[in-house]
Amino acid sequence: MEDQNQNKKVDERISEEMRFKYIGFDVYPNKAKEFWRSKEEKRKYLEEAKQKSSESAVAERDHSLVRAVVFSKVDRMVLTITSFLLTVSLFVPWFSIRGEAFHSQVIGLGFFLKLGALFGYAPLSGPLFSVFVVLVSLTILFSFVAGLMSLLAIYKKHSDVESYLTNLKKKLQLNWIPLVLWVAVIIISTIGMPTPFADALNVGGFGDSFNVANFFALASFGVWLSLPCVIINCVKISDL
Fold it and tell me: How many whole angstroms separate alpha carbon 11 and alpha carbon 128?
């Protein structure tokens, strides 16, 4: 009973209007005053805040892992060597053909000059031989193109690292073309094809059929430059 009487007395002392004022209502019944003294003060503050925010973001990027060097001098040197070798592969022997009384070196560029003669033997060997000749031609060509484009991209100047690496990666992806062509050449060589003209031309190294062992037996510098170099360049793409 005493507690009830005490609460009743408190309620009587504190009116509803006073209670709302006490807990925060109606403290500022009118519109709040403008925080900024002037528009100029507001503008100046916002500009300073924007500048500090920008400086903080730049500092964070500069010291983050995203800005870490992902293309080292070693990578640059390796890609320079492989791309240069791919470029010069067009002018070195790709095949070494030996006969009973001759030894002929066929350079990459010279292979295109022999396409007419090679396609002349196609009726004797079947369509697979023609496909093989075309694939080898494209492999020689795109090895040169991929090497040259990669080499130019390595030493092309850019305003920032990101654009440089983006362009380099884009050009290095051209190396996938000769790599895929190499896979196709090896697959067709593994399948094999008849070469009845080999004996008539006194070409050594294979008899009436041509297979992958014969192909690598005839391979010269160009083959051993192109195949490993395009593999290395393709592997390096994943590092960028």
Answer: 105
